[in-house]
Amino acid sequence: MGVNAPFRSKPLIITRRAFTAALSLTGLSLLAGLSPLRLIGQAMAQSAADVAKPVSLPDMALGPAGAAVTITEFASMTCPHCAAFNEAVFPKIKSEYIDSGKIRYIFREFPLDIKAAAGSMLARRIAAGDSGKYFAVIDLLFKSQNDWVMKDTTAALTRIGKQAGLSQQQVEDCLKDQSLLDKIAADQKYAAEVLKVDSTPTFFVNGEKIKGETSFEEFDKKIKSLLKS
Known about the structure:
The protein is 50% helix and 13% strand. It is of the alpha+beta class. The strands form two sheets. The protein has a five-stranded mixed beta sheet, with helices on both faces. A two-stranded antiparallel ribbon has the order 1-2. The longest helix has 16 residues, at 178-193. The chain starts with 11 loop residues before the first strand and ends with a helix.
């Protein structure tokens, strides 16, 4: 799970054997045939253009595309620090700057484990490309993190999916979606290798990297300085 410092001193590579074994312990048997995730890298992004570069999945974003300030968050759905940021800081940023159209906020998946990957897959499936709905789903997942991470994850995610209008079969199909997981893994690989993301949450404000939980006051100061420039 995410920490303020890098979560590993060396690259973490989840092999297929370890991946399959982990599934059997977490109740995520539906995902047993999916590809492993790779987490690699350290250091700073090369430029704002690298952060803004289109990736495999469409960006889930709030706020105007032409905003003077863009914040890009990389988060893992099982990271407690990401959940804490979502609870305490993000609502203030949204109220002060996103809802007023002053900034654009992009959320990108950086799953640190198989459960986080499953949560991200479900959020993508429920949202079906609707950014507003996507942010609502990840808010629910973060707020109920202990329930679906610490218990039978498959059953809990199935329940959430059904509450959002999916059928049992649609949830199962979502968790078996090889193409979707491959895209999440590819985007994660790009973030790790090119942007040097190695822990969650990690933010980029107009390309400048900020690691770990960050207060609203720090974001507020940074955003105001960029809006004035």
